[in-house]
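Hi C.,

You asked whether I'd gotten around to modeling the 188-residue construct. I have! Everything is below, sequence then structure, no commentary in between.
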Amino acid sequence: MTDPREEFAKLEPASELGGVPDAFQRLWTPHRMAYIQAGADANRGSGCPFCANPRKSDEDGLIVHRGEHAFVALNLFPYNSGHLLICPYRHVGLYDEATTEETAEIAHLTKVAMRVLRQTSRCDGFNIGMNQGEVAGAGIEEHLHQHIVPRWTSDANFFPVIARTKALPQLLGDVRRTLAEAWPGHAS
């Protein structure tokens, strides 16, 4: 049997491999490709993903709750586990174009989402906001959506700042199921 230390000694150092070093340290997470591909496939040719999302099953659309004028879904590319989006069903781009009923329900769903996230994940705080227009950082500027990002005292580590890497400890399907089951009025 070969000694593993001898085999390890035969490996080439990374500095001698092909490629040009850059500023990124890579954290290989191949399981994330399923989410990236699912998002690309789901949105290809379907127009607005926030209009297409409610036509899917809750599991496929990552929908946590469906209201009368708006729905709550997990962000397919979350900043943190439990990163929610609240979207009106109606295709509207800016907050001031939303109806009074839509903004009231978005506000109500935000409050409920905060309670559910605190209950299920014991987060310490939140980032809540809307990026409206491409210049403001909206990834999908055509359809209004509000971000609710749970934050923990310990989530501000060196990874995102120095390593340009974000580690997510939970799978999206698991987070969706936990939040949906904890949502008030959820039928078991």
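If it helps when you're writing up: The chain has a mean pLDDT of 80.

Thanks,
B.
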